[in-house]
Design a protein that fits this description.
The chain has 208 residues and is α+β, with helices and mostly antiparallel strands. The chain has two domains: 6-41 and 49-96 and 196-206, Ribosomal protein S4/S9, N-terminal domain (Ribosomal Protein S4 Delta 41, Chain A, domain 1, Orthogonal Bundle); 99-187, RNA-binding S4 domain (Structural Genomics Hypothetical 15.5 Kd Protein In mrcA-pckA Intergenic Region, Chain A, Roll). The protein has helices at residues 6-15, 32-35, 52-67, 71-83, 88-97, 100-106, 113-121, 151-163, 199-206; strands at residues 125-127, 130-131, 144-147, 173-176, 181-184. The chain is globular, with a radius of gyration of 18 Å.
Length: 208
């Protein structure tokens, strides 16, 4: 039997992908996916063919766990994406990418999106020179992010940045690692979404 990796890591195995719920562990050989890339339980167990409803629900749950959002939040994002011009599914995914907690994680200022949310709530991040304590804040083109100048914030974010040196910052964000700052140069596109998800199944599920 493999060593127990905890419920979060077992979620990664069940989804068959890295959800980065346990921070640096997900980037190491200790990750549940790297050790056993099959669902928890008996290996010989095989599920039958999933219904279209089940497939859509699975994709929605995958996105919720990946970005750390609740059902009510997810519904609000979907409603906003539905009102926007263009492909609803692609717009939905780019809205999640624009969340401040996701941006902080992508910059390497936090080991996971959950830790990024904690850093934001505790007031370690400024946007446009103002403290922002809402993890769901959507960044826009031209927004400048900066670690607060106090010693505690600097030490926390710089330490995380050192631990995540191998993480690549997306092209739509320009990072200033020396000064713990960043600027949003463009809005993310569908190609910037790293999670393997079939968003059209989610649109079909929620449009019924």
């Amino acid at each position: 039997m493999g060593r127990y990796t905890g419920p979060k890591c077992r979620l990664c195995r069940r989804e068959g992908m890295k959800l980065f719920l346990k921070g640096a562990r997900c980037e190491s050989e200790k990750c549940a996916i790297a050790r056993r890339d099959y669902p928890p339980g008996q290996v010989s167990f095989r599920r039958g063919k999933m219904s279209s409803f089940g497939e859509g629900l699975r994709e929605k749950q995958k996105v919720k766990r990946f970005y750390g959002v609740f059902e009510e939040q997810f519904r609000r994002y979907f409603a906003e994406a539905s009102r926007s011009k263009g492909n609803t599914g692609e717009t939905l995914m780019t809205l999640f990418e624009r969340r401040l907690d996701n941006v902080v994680f992508k910059l390497g200022w936090a080991a996971s999106r959950a830790e990024a949310r904690q850093a934001i709530v505790h007031g370690h991040i400024n946007v446009g020179g103002e403290r922002v304590s809402v993890p769901s804040f959507l960044v826009s083109v031209g927004d400048e992010l900066k670690c607060r100048s106090d010693a505690k914030s600097q030490k926390l974010l710089r330490g995380r940045l050192e631990e995540s040196k191998g993480r690549q910052c997306p092209a739509w964000i320009t990072a200033d690692n020396d000064n713990l700052g960043a600027k949003i140069n463009a809005l993310p596109t569908r190609d910037d979404v790293s999670i393997p998800v079939q968003e059209q199944l989610i649109v079909e599920l929620l449009s019924k």
